[in-house]
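FYI - complex with zinc ion, inputs then prediction.
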Amino acid sequence: MKITIHRGSNEIGGTCIQLSTEQSTILLDLGLPLRKDSKELDVAALTPDAVIISHPHQDHFGLIEALHHDIQVYMGELSKNLINATRMLLGNELLKNEIRHFKAWQTFAIGDFIITPYLVDHSAVDAYGFLIEAEGKRVFYSGDFRAHGRKSILFDKIIKNPPKDIDLLFMEGTMIQRKNDDFPTEADVEQKIYETIKEQENITFLISSSQNIDRIVSAFRACLRAGKTLVLDIYTAWVLEKLKLVSHNIPAMEWDQIKIKLSYSQHEKLKDNPDFFGDFRKRVYQHRISKEEIQANPSEYLFFGKMSHFRTINFYKEIKTVNVIYSQWLGYLTYKDEDYFGAEAMAGYRSDPQVNFVYAHTSGHATVEDLQMFAEALKPKMLVPVHTECGDLFDDFFENILQLTDNYEIMI
Ligand SMILES: [Zn+2]
């Protein structure tokens, strides 16, 4: 089997790994880079039989639209639903490539390749690692994963019953030089949210990703404990709507203490695409809350949203000190607005006397100790670092390291 990392051997994001046999070629992920100085990837020049997407984070799927439209893309069904909904609500066309679904632990084939998806715990839903077999070789790609989220049982499951005889393991190392000590688990994040909102005198904004389901659950549980109402936007409500297909334990817009704040532009998109959204528009309308209702009693609410909601934050901070719980990677605060809209305002809140800026976040990625457990369970003949800025540190923690650079081809 021939292996090339097109990109992602020594950076976080922009991942794209190619595996080839005599007859077949697949790509694992096709992500947008997170770094500005990342090397260009000529996606139009790639001609695999198929692309397999590990999870619906931009740095793993974000370049699909640059791919030739005849090439099939494989991902989880929920991932497809979320990616399409994002495109719809932003007013973009749906992806043109044929999207095929795989299911957790159900083996499928692409040409010479036999692929088994392993559902993993990550800050995105519907995230997978893959066992890939061809020409008598066995490769495992970890994707992005962790062992300390609300689905940590998935990590335990792999450790207890790991895939055997792995020739090569691509393992992510996002956290290799970072610690996750401030908030080791999601329960610690929930506690911090609860403490922040329980005696609030104004509304609290929780800034996080709508796809971080663990975080939505934490926000909702904190609201239950503090007697507050969780306010979500239409996109987050849609994410929860799609999650009903896989779990009934995840908060839904029909639940008590959950309300939906409609924005005009998102609501228009629902109206424009009735076939895609079905009766969701009608139902979301039944659970709406108006801005007047919130303004009448702001201390009753926790608003879950993205950095781009800074204008609403600016409105409330003029009334009284407002809590902003920043609940994602701190590195985004160094971004310019053109790269992440709202980042500049958010960074300014850290020193704004009208804002009580609170950090509460646990990583979507495995700690070094958990990576070590993972590598020890899989016992690969070769371990190749990916999705890391410090691949050179792998030697300090693991055995059989093979450090690759982008575009360097190897045979196994
Ligand atoms: Zn990810």
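The mean pLDDT is 95. The longest helix spans residues 77-90.
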